[in-house]
Give the backbone structure.
Amino acid sequence: MMSKAFAAIALILPCLLLTQCDAVEKAAGRGNAENPAVAFDVAIEMTPAAAARFKATGDTLVVDVAYYGYPTEAARPKANGLHQIDLGQERVGVLPNVAKVHMPGGGLNQKGLTDIVDGDVMVLVDGYSITPDSNEDNQVRCSYYRDRLEMARSKPPVLKCDIPAND
């Protein structure tokens, strides 16, 4: 007969593993189709301290892209509090030892392009860590990049990741 402790471990371990997979799946933004017309890469530079933290904790690196633009005169009522038109968001979760992350572009709402001046899409790219357990997220943070999508496609943005100064 199996001990209760062994049975509990046998039932809990797969649940914990599935929870980690689920967290990565949620961060990865699965379901966004590749859009080669707007897809771009993001370069990752990790300090030794950030790399050590990732290795010790098993965290996932999330690269988060917000697409937006500045409204045409007719679309101003649709603008958010920052006077921008939100065009979607995309998150890709990866293991932190990668040097490059591919953003597929499927999170960009193509229908909103008529609401922005000259169809000029802007991107805000950010990076941060998420933990597989009850530890606090954001133990590693990355610099952000903000520019036109056209610029991000011509030269990959670089996110520099490090441990926040107050840690």
